[in-house]
Amino acid sequence: MTKIRSTAMSRTVPWKLLAAALALIALAGCGSQSKSSASLEGSKEAIALYNARCISCHASDLSGKVGPDSDLRTVGSRMTKEAIAKQITNGGDIMPAFASKLSADDIDKLADWLSKQQ
Fold this sequence. Notes:
Signal peptide: 1-28
Keywords: Electron transport, Heme, Iron, Metal-binding, Signal, Transport
CATH topology of the largest domain: Cytochrome Bc1 Complex, Chain D, domain 2
Strand content: under 5%
Order of helices and strands: HHHHHH
Radius of gyration: 23 Å
Organism: Paenibacillus terricola
Distance between the termini: 69 Å
Pfam families: Cytochrome_CBB3 (PF13442)
Domain Cytochrome c: 41-118
Oligomer: single chain
């Protein structure tokens, strides 16, 4: 009977260890120092628009997902508010135009907020 319990335990212990290891791996990213969308500062409306329309290409921390040009962490030091609004409206390179997807007021809110990212 002891052998049966040992065999049963040897089958369950690795699964428990595997589950614990996977949980630790999943939690490892939670302590990251990067700027997440929850910690972005500024207009709540602009951040909500960013999360709804921009995060898929520009990442939750503004670092970009589709190359260095999609990094918005310091976009305000590279572009004026007007240039940012024009880019959002008309698109460019691989960025799609958002003129038909966002109102002029929403584009202005995003451009104003992004111009402060320095």
